[in-house]
């Protein structure tokens, strides 16, 4: 992976770097700038709900007798819920998500997790990021990173994935041979004008393999920066809510409109570790999530790009069925996954987890998350899932034929 600060800050100021100069053939620069997938390629945007989203209060089994029995301080009023049927409802803050569902653009996968659940944030997120539940099978790269590794040889200048946010880049997008862009603002990658580039000249005696590698790497970096610079000329879309998540998705929208060429975008919304005072915090977070996704997809619809994009919302685990005496909930197991977009097959997928038939006080997992990854890779992006996931997982029917 590279970021402007980590790569350019070291490389461009290094005395060993022989950067671009008039000796670099123009056709090579043009080829690098033109590299990348076609503009009509499909895109996956992953939103990570970091901290462990309370799925029971997101997709609420309000008719389950266990809801009233186990939830005292964190129970939602049934009259306020957005009812989907006579058993399940959405949190009242998810009004934009409910609109997407009514419009046939939202799927809700219930009871998602993995075998032998782990309630550690670190370990559970490692599993979701790597798609390797057994630590012995961990191979040092993320599930998206492995996809990019397969594509790296064919598209060496393609950024492949973009992580938008001020957090450290997630393991999910890290590959062994591929590079993903990390940025908080799109102007992080504006590298100066041509005069500044031409001021860097090769030195006598620097014509070695390392120098040649650095020249090629810098050329690719400048080509990426040139594509990123076009974002400044992209007109803003519809008005987004004034939240950090919405701001991140607006950046993603501008990148897609500019034709940057990435197949994956990754954004993190933190704050879901709601051990105390959950109701107000959770309502705010879900409202921000719902409003941001709604604005993002409306923006892409206006730009006639919505049919290319799917949005996947994941979290490392759900919360415990019983609240904890501090008006909150502790680390649990299964939870819902949301998938939004024009190409999504809408509705509820999988059975609602029972709040009375529990395992060690937790929900039972009914859907392995790797079946969702298989669906977005095979069914949406047209990329082979088996080598990425380390085995065959039947894709869920989450996309229209």
Regions with little confidence, pLDDT below 50 for 5+ residues: 1-37
Name of the CATH first level? Alpha Beta
CATH topology: Alkaline Phosphatase, subunit A
Q: Per CATH, which architecture?
A: 3-Layer(aba) Sandwich
What is the approximate shape?
globular
Count of extended strands: 13
- Domain tally: 1
Mean pLDDT: 84
Strand residues, percent? 5-15%
- Helical run tally: 12
Give the SSE string.
EHHEEHEEHEHHEEHHHEHEEEEHH
Quick synopsis:
Helix content is 33%, strand content 13%. With 401 residues, the protein is α/β, with parallel strands linked by helices. The chain has a single domain (42-189, 241-389), classed as 3-Layer(aba) Sandwich (Alkaline Phosphatase, subunit A), CATH 3.40.720.
């Amino acid at each position: 992976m590279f970021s402007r600060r980590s790569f350019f800050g070291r490389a461009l100021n290094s005395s060993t770097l022989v950067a671009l100069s008039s000796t670099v053939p123009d056709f090579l620069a043009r080829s690098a700038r033109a590299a990348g997938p076609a503009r009509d390629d499909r895109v996956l945007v992953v939103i990570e709900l970091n901290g462990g989203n309370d799925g029971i209060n997101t997709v609420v089994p309000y008719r389950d007798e266990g809801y009233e029995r186990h939830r005292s301080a964190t129970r939602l009023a049934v009259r306020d819920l957005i009812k989907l049927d006579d058993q399940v409802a959405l949190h009242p803050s998810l009004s934009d998500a409910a609109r997407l569902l009514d419009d046939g653009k939202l799927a809700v996968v219930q009871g998602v997790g993995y075998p032998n659940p782990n309630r550690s944030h670190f370990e559970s997120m490692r599993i979701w990021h790597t798609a390797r539940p057994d630590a012995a099978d961990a191979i040092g790269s993320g599930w998206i990173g492995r996809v990019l590794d397969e594509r790296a040889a064919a598209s060496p200048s393609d950024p492949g994935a973009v992580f938008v946010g001020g957090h450290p880049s997630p393991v999910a997008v890290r590959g062994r041979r591929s590079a993903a862009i990390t940025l908080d603002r799109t102007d992080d990658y504006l590298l100066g004008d041509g005069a500044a580039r031409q001021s860097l000249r090769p030195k006598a005696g620097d014509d070695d393999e390392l120098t040649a590698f650095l020249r090629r790497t810098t050329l690719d970096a400048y080509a990426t920066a040139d594509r990123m610079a076009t974002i400044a000329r992209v007109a803003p879309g519809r008005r987004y809510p004034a939240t950090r998540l919405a701001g991140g998705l607006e950046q993603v929208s501008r990148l897609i409109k500019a034709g940057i060429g990435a197949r994956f975008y990754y954004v993190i919304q933190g704050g879901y570790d709601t051990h105390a005072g959950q109701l107000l915090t959770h309502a705010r977070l879900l409202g921000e999530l719902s409003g941001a996704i709604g604005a993002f997809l409306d923006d892409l619809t206006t730009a006639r790009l919505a049919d290319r994009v799917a949005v996947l919302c994941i979290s490392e685990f759900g919360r415990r069925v019983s609240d904890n005496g501090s008006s909150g909930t502790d680390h649990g197991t299964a939870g819902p996954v949301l998938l939004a977009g024009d190409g999504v097959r809408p509705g509820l997928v999988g059975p609602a987890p029972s709040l009375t038939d529990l395992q060690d006080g937790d929900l039972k997992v009914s859907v392995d998350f790797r079946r969702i990854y298989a669906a977005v890779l095979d069914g949406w992006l047209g990329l082979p899932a088996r080598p990425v996931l380390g085995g065959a997982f039947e894709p869920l029917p989450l996309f229209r034929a």
